[in-house]
């Protein structure tokens, strides 16, 4: 998508096969003054070592298919391996009953800013405290580097409660944008059954 500032009010039609989302950017410029400790004694955080692209994509799809996560699915094996092995990337898995059920990724490429690149859990753990556990870990990990800013973005295709969750976690919104992309269900990156609440238009 070409970067730029949209200044016109009103509606704009999308070509068939495209999807659009309203993106909200949020930041945290200091650790939260007070917050509850990590919840969920049944959860553990595992620092990822070398991860095969296929096993990463399987978990990525398991977490994000309902919300049309597709960015990492566009990368080749070599591109994905390089991204995950970057010295500026911190990848962790959420473990539940010995199985990988969540992802936490920090991107320190633009330090002293740190981006929460991905945070999510599989469908069966939603509403069970897994997200709160991961976020508490993410905040502690990010601020252990003493950054100037910890930030993330979410969009209108995400879980309906995602934005409220980030606000409750201590992030403040500072910018809004629009993302337009090819529908990953039409490009074959995700199955056509993904995100059934979002209709496929064109194809």
Structure write-up:
The protein is an alpha+beta fold and 203 residues long. It has 5 helices and 7 strands. The protein has a single domain (19-31, 43-185), classed as Aminopeptidase, CATH 3.40.630. Helix content is 23%, strand content 30%. The radius of gyration is 17 Å and the shape is globular.
Helix fraction, binned, reads 10-25%
Instruction: Average the pLDDT over all residues and give the rounded result.
Output: 92
Basic shape: globular
Question: What is the CATH-assigned architecture?
Answer: 3-Layer(aba) Sandwich
Low-confidence stretches: none
User: Tell me about the biggest sheet?
Assistant: 7 strands, mixed
Q: What's the layout of helices and strands?
A:
Blueprint: E1 18-28, E2 43-47, H1 53-64, H2 77-85, E3 89-96, E4 99-107, E5 113-121, H3 130-143, E6 149-155, H4 162-168, E7 172-182, H5 184-187
Parallel strand pairs: 5-6
Antiparallel strand pairs: 1-6, 1-7, 2-3, 3-4, 4-5
Can you tag this structure with a few keywords?
203 residues, alpha+beta, Aminopeptidase, 30% strand, 23% helix, 7 strands, seven-stranded mixed β-sheet, 5 helices
Short account of what is shown:
The protein is of the alpha+beta class and 203 residues long. The protein has helices spanning 53-64, 77-85, 130-143, 162-168, 184-187; strands at 18-28, 43-47, 89-96, 99-107, 113-121, 149-155, 172-182.
